[in-house]
Amino acid sequence: MNEAESNNPELNNTELHELLPLYALNQVSLEERIQLETALQNNPAWRAELEELRQVFVGLNFAAPVVVPSPDLKSRLLERVAQSSTAPKEVVRSVLAHKTETKLETKLETKSKAKSVPWLFGGLGLAAAVSSVLIWNSSAPPALASLATDAAVVASSEGYILLGNNELSKSPIVVVDPAGKAHPIALESMKPMWFTEAVISQGKGYLLCGANNKLIVVDLKTDRVLSTHIAPAGSAGLNVVAGEVWLKGASSGEVVVFKGNTQHTKQLSSAQNMPMLDFMDAVLPSKQGVWISHHAKGELFLLDAKTLEVTKKLELGGAPVALSAWRTHILVVDVTGALLQLDQNGKLEKRLALPGHPDKMTVGTGQNGTFAYLTDRAGMVFKVNLEGWKLEMEKKFQNPMDITALPDGHLALADGKGGLKMLDAALEPIQPS
Amino acid sequence: MILAPPLLFAKPKSNLPRTEQRAKLVPMSLHEISDGELIANFARKDQHGQEALSTLYDRYIRAALGLATQVLFNREEAEEVVQDCFFKLWENPGIYRAGQGSFAAFFMTMIRNRSVDFLRKRRDHATLEDEEGNLLPIKDARESPLERTELSALGDTLQTVLKSLSAAHRETVERAFYREESREEIAEAMNVPVGTVKSRLKYALDKLRNRMKGREWE
Fold first, then answer.
1. Using CA atoms, how far apart are residues A251 and A343, in angstroms rounded to an integer?
2. Nearest partner of A255 among A245, A246, A242, judged by Cα
3. Which of A9, A60, B13, B123 is deepest in the core (most CB within 10 A)?
4. Distance CA B161, CA B207 (A)
5. Which segments within A129-250 are labelled E, that is strand?
6. Residue pair A378/A364 in contact by the 8 Å Cβ criterion
7. What is the rounded CA–CA span in Å between residue A143 and residue B127?
8. Hey, where are the domains in chain B?
9. Distance (Å, whole) CA B26 – CA B160
């Protein structure tokens, strides 16, 4: 990415059109991608051109001059295959340890360096302390960078941290257990991941992938994918309410609830096309029912948890995309640049204008429980004083995608370009002990 | 409210065809059956499966090696990458799913991705040591309904266009597509401004795209 260009807020049509080949090659910055996808929405000619470019790239794979193989290449391959078919599978669990600073390391580790080094948070002896010990089903050292490459969503509960990476790799999902060991989970998928939400509940991790329209359920103790399920188009909102899994489709306008062995669907609004970047919405349980945002129309719905009937519909305006409970209030993030506070019945109490476009939020824990932290993919994390109702702090990161509060008051930040970062209440990186 | 069939905690369906479907393949000549059917035989892990692999190898080895060589500029490394791709496919035939485009498009994308990975790791003075696993990552897989012969013909056409471009335009495409270099890396390597890289790439790809669409080549 060209830094100068990435800071350019507006590109004209000619510049955007010239970027189309680079977009098709996944060689544009986030800012360029946002602008291009917005432009593409209203430009069918460009969309057709993009599809043609993609077909050109398929064809270019066949445009290289053919090369005649060495005479023994085939026999070497078949010999390797024959050996693998007769030899018993050997699974070697190699434990590699690797000292990092505040994120999972980004370079290849060599086997000789393997040594367990716990990664404690500020010497506080916390339950959620994380080490970078890796367990891998191979005797060979893995590329550690793959564990937190393009970090997109993060959740923390029950002593676990659950991380989803927006990239097709061997470890699109990483579970950090209460002992601080990071466990990568392989997942087969044809499309690169675009995780929109992650939730932990009762020993299971739930992740929503908007690109593949999938809900993925993993067992946090065994690091296994328990099941995958078809999710509504543009899946973005996710929560587990009394053992029931609630999903919201940002583009489908649906709510889908998995109750035991049955699936229930409620159409809240008409479906509409939108780019993946706009797959944002939220589900929040409360005593009154389940709150569901529909940002495409600036609406907030309250559904009866048993019947799924809409008991309230609020036209908030803006684009509500994230919801959190705070004391008896409901906090709503408006991605157009605001934080709202509603009472438990949905009445607007306060509105705080914020710079940028925040789209994810967590409320602090412990002594930090009067602060909300909001992430803006463009690079900022905001700290809002909820009692004083003011923006307390804003800090620049690379590509903050999601944030979650840890039980001890610290925070885990999923930074698309910077990896998984552990931060203190002042948004400063926690130094390893 | 719509009640749909139970889904939660259902086990994912296998991608492999049923046994009886595979059994139908046995009496046929391997050269008569499709790529997908050949791959279905890999699961047998027997002599017949190896014969299916041998047939698939014959179909793709020259094009695959050509593509890997185009990326790596090194014959030995290209052979290593290609052999590894065939082996990974043998070990995990489920990575290709019929119905999501042709195998030809899938496999050649896999070859290019693995070649670029190899290239990057070579640049970083590291080795490909983390390749053993249950699943093969295929990033940015291009789906295309076109089969091998059609793609091969398209490749020939595009190759003709590439040769007709100026050396600078051709090199820009080769760096951007085959070697996945960023615009900044290309600009530095070719000693031109980034803007020139963008405009050259746009120009060259327009030529390729228009030719692909069957427009008159100027």
1. 28
2. A246
3. A60
4. 7
5. 133-136, 151-157, 160-165, 173-176, 181-185, 195-201, 204-209, 214-219, 224-230, 235-241, 244-249
6. no
7. 10
8. 15-145, 146-218
9. 40
Other C-beta atoms lying within 10 Å of the C-beta of residue A359: 26
Q: What is the pLDDT of residue A180?
A: 77
Record the tokens describing residue B168, joined without a space: 């600078």
Asked if the Cβ–Cβ distance from A85 to B46 is below 8 Å, we say yes
**Calpha distance A375→A394 (Å, rounded):** 10
DSSP B192: S
CB-based contact A204:A220 (threshold 8 Å): yes
d(CA B104, CA B150): 10
pTM value > 0.80: no
The residue in chain A having the minimum alpha-carbon distance to the alpha carbon of residue B125 is A108
Q: Which two tokens stand for residue A236?
A: 């973005």
CB A189 within 8 A of CB B154: no
Are the Cβ atoms of A62 and B151 closer than 8 angstroms? yes
CATH number of B15-145: 1.10.1740.10
Helices and strands per DSSP (H, E), number in chain A: 6, 29
Two tokens, residue A319: 């684009």
**Residue A237 vs residues A93, B181, B207: alpha-carbon distances, Å:** 36, 36, 43
Among the partner-chain residues B12, B133, B152, the one whose CB lies closest to the CB of A170 is B133
| Farthest CA pair distance, chain B | 63
| A119-145: pLDDT as tens digits | 323 222 233 333 333 322 222 223 334
Q: Return d(Cα A245, Cα A243) in angstroms, integer.
A: 7
End-to-end Cα spacing for chain B = 59
A211, A192, A216, A199: which is closest to A251 by C-alpha? Answer: A211
Rounded distance between C-alpha atoms, residue A139 and residue B137, angstroms: 19
> What values do phi and psi take at A171, rounded to 5?
-135, 65
The DSSP output letter for A335 is T
B87 and A81: CB-CB below 8 Å? yes
What whole-number distance in Å separates Cα of residue A197 and Cα of residue A231? 12
DSSP state of A215: E
Q: How far away is chain B from the Cα of A58, in angstroms, using its nearest Cα?
A: 6
Helix, strand and coil in chain B, % to nearest 5: 65, 0, 35
Under DSSP, the state recorded for A320 is E
| Strands, E assignment, A242-369 | 244-249, 254-259, 262-267, 283-286, 289-294, 299-303, 310-315, 320-326, 329-334, 338-342, 348-353, 360-363
Q: What is the pLDDT along chain B (218 residues), one digit of tens a residue?
A: 333 332 222 223 333 333 333 333 333 455 568 888 888 888 877 788 888 999 999 999 999 999 999 999 999 999 999 999 999 999 888 888 766 678 999 999 999 988 988 888 776 543 333 333 333 333 444 556 677 888 888 898 999 999 999 999 999 999 999 998 999 999 999 999 999 999 999 999 999 999 888 743 33
Q: In what order do the strands lie in the sheet with A289-294?
A: A283-286, A289-294, A299-303, A310-315
φ and ψ of A369, to 5 deg: -75, 0
pLDDT in the model for residue A94: 22
> Domains in chain A, please, with CATH?
3-60 (no CATH), 94-423 (2.130.10.10)
CB contact under 8 A, A73 and B79: yes
Q: Do A324 and A361 contact (CB within 8 A), yes or no? A: yes
Which pLDDT score, from 0 to 100, does residue B40 have?
85
Domain B146-218 has CATH 3.40.47.40: no
